[in-house]
Amino acid sequence: MRRVLSLALVALLPTVALAGPAAADPPASGYTLTFSDEFDGTAVDTGKWNYRTDVKAYSAQRPENVSVGGGLMSIALRAESFGGKDFTGGGLVSKQKLRYGHYETRAKINNGAGWHSSFWLMAGDGSTTFPAEQRTEVDIFEIDSINPQTVHNGVLTWKGSGVSAGKSYGSTYNSGLDLRQWHTYGLDWSETQAKFYVDGVLRYTAPYVPTDWTHDYTSIWLTSIAYGTVPDPSTLPAAMQFDYVRYWQKDYYVDNDGPAAYGYSESGTWSTSTLTGWTVASPTRYATCGTAAATATWRPNLRAAGTYQVWAYKVRAANSDPAQRYDTIHNGVTSTTVVDGTAGSSGWVSLGTWTFPAGTGGYVRTTASGTGCARADAVKFVRT
Asked: Helix, strand or coil for residue 332?
């Protein structure tokens, strides 16, 4: 590895081995790096990160325990009284909210039992692990330092504020590796599944689909807390360390609500429908029934030029528009698809595969025919 530890970290960690597997990167082509922190500075980039500050299990989490130096982010694990606990840990939570794509970090856990370290995705700002907005949790790795070869990967669903939504998938296994050394951990999350990697090797696949629960936008959490077993103070201070964190995007979803509505707009009169869309509890919109010319537009911000298959989510209902028009604008060319919203069932309808430039020049626009109710939910651009 190209980096060396700062003197402060050397004092904290008398013996540190920086050799180990290098970055694995996405398992396929077509991905664009859109969020990263290489931890090359001398302080936490607070433009990117919140600190984890909750009190949970055996530790309180403190910003003072998180440092950046020598090309690493380190979480100090200490025996100290704070927040009513005898130990302190910490972590970082990204301010940017992300969803489908490839996530990766390179990390090493501490030596000594009693600490639960993790690289995971969930809503929140780090002040609690039970925020009201929590819906999807994806655990890219969870490692208890008492078992330094064991990894847990999984997906949990929440109704918010710590209330389970009932669906969960997971695998706990002996990795055959010493996780106190450097290893690379990855997640490839798509609409239909979450695939978990260690050192570029696929270890587990969770079949997580939108009909299971809401697939929401989440923050990246890099954390370590005292949990499971009371830590032995004689092993402290210690540190959990991260070399970098990276996120690559491949597919683009534009919705009518939430963070994915950044490129959504309407003309004419539209209202919120009681009919849901492509993911659980996703609201949909409808134009005033029998009114022609109302439009809805989905305009992604494509980070890379390329070929994308375009899909629109059809909301089927007896009074939907039987001749709803979708225009796909790609490289200045307009391709039109007419969709019968009264036929078949709700689901994704292909609008074709086209080449798009990077940026916001390409888009999809739907227009009401004047018969029935035109409906709008989401459009996705899937890189091919």
From this structure: coil
The 10s digit of each residue's pLDDT in 205-246 is 999 999 999 999 999 999 999 999 999 999 999 999 999 999
Q: Which alpha helices (H) appear in 190-338, and where do they start and end? A: none
For residue range 346-380, what is the model confidence (pLDDT) as tens digits?
Answer: 999 999 999 999 999 999 999 999 999 999 999 99
Could you give the CA distance from residue 281 to residue 348 in angstroms, rounded to a whole number?
16
User: How does DSSP assign 72-126, residue by residue?
Assistant: EEEEEEEEEEETTEEEEEEEEEESS-B-SEEEEEEEEPPSSSSEEEEEEEESS-S
Mean pLDDT for the stretch of residues 296-313? 98
Do 182 and 260 lie in one domain? The reply is no
Q: HSE-up of 114 (CA within 13 Å, CB side)? A: 21
Here the tokens at position 6 are 């700062």
44 and 188 housed in the same domain: yes
Whether residue 264 sits in one domain with residue 168: no
Which residues span the domain enclosing 378? 253-383
